[in-house]
Amino acid sequence: MxxxxxxxxxxxxxxxxxxxxxxxxxKLVTNSDGSANSQDLAAAGEAAFAICKGCHVVEPxxxxxxxxxxxxxLGRKAGSVEGYTYSEALxxxxxxxxxxxxxxxxxxxxxKIAGTNMVAGAVSDADSRAAIIAYLAAQSN
Length: 141
Ligand code: HEC
Known about the structure:
The chain has six helices and no strands. It is an all-alpha fold. It has a single domain, classed as Cytochrome c-like domain (Cytochrome Bc1 Complex, Chain D, domain 2, Orthogonal Bundle), CATH 1.10.760. It is globular. It starts with 37 loop residues before the first helix and ends with a helix. The site of heme C (HEC) has 28 residues, from helix 2, helix 3 and helix 4.
């Protein structure tokens, strides 16, 4: 088996790639099954996340605002941001935030966790939720 030499001390610095495209030629890259490419989804999700931004930050280490910091939320135990005061309902929910759990919560926070303090920000459109979740998944380092 060939061991990759990536990461050796002599590897060149990564060069920033600038992609120039003619106006109007941009198109959504899709996977072979026709679903949107996850990078494009994350980009769409950044725009859709605007409705969450009034209450949530995603920058690593940033202080929580109205809601808890959502950096690295995927795979995180619900109610576990240090220094943030959660509702008892959310803190005691025993949820680990998978894509499916996030989808259900964002669709209907109160329906998913009765008594949560997240009283706004529900997103009824499934495509928007998928994009937001892809964006959140990308906010992990
Ligand atoms: C009006 C303010 C507000 C908006 C808008 C809002 N949230 Fe929240 N969110 C909260 C609050 C407050 C909590 C804490 C709820 C609790 O303790 O019960 C929360 C909690 C969460 C949690 C649980 C995090 C954890 O650490 O367990 C997730 C995930 C979440 N919000 C995602 C979103 C997303 C995605 C959006 C946008 C679609 C959004 N929120 C919009 C206020 C908001």
